[in-house]
Amino acid sequence: MTTLEATRDGRRYEVVNGRLLITGAQPPAHHAAVIALMIALKQACPPDLLISVGSLAFRPTPHTTLRPDLLVCPRNYTATEPPDLAVEVLSPSTRTTDVVLKRALYETHQVPSYWLLDPITQELTVLALTPTGYTCQAVVQAEETFHATLPFPIALTPSALLR
User: Fold this and answer.
1) Does residue 5 have a pLDDT over 60?
2) Closest CA to 72 of 106, 27, 108, 100
3) Which of 24, 68, 113, 118 has a CA-to-CA distance to 32 between 20 and 30 Å?
4) pLDDT for 4 beyond 50
5) Angstrom distance (rounded) from CA 22 to CA 38
6) Burial of residue 81, with CB atoms counted within 10 A of its CB: 0-12 exposed, 13-18 middle, 19 or more buried
7) Which phi and psi (to 5°) does residue 103 adopt?
8) Are 61 and 79 in contact (CB under 8 A)?
């Protein structure tokens, strides 16, 4: 199967320590949340950074390839260096992978910021990398607003992203 065929079938293909992870097609709420967050990030994004929706991979090792729902990286991104931000939108089929496995992988491979957006509970969890690992910077509920500084200044309200 070619890379193009893999993207056309509605599934996401990732490799973790040489094992293939396949995520099936996601529900409409998942796609709507990804698009809304992409638009918000794009509007605030400085010109030296790029917002990618599922098209760029992060390849921290030859045996690991991750495709976050959203990725913020420098325009000259090489895929082997950590992106500035990885975002996963949670769904019933990806919750454990995103909350446990990917969190550990992004932390191990030094991704400075990892966000988890839950469209069901209208909750945004913001994790920031510290010398001892990820620290929960904020858990933002429905109508609350989070004022991020990394990877660039932006104000986000979960319920506004999920309308």
Assistant:
1) no
2) 106
3) 113
4) no
5) 23
6) middle
7) -55, -50
8) no
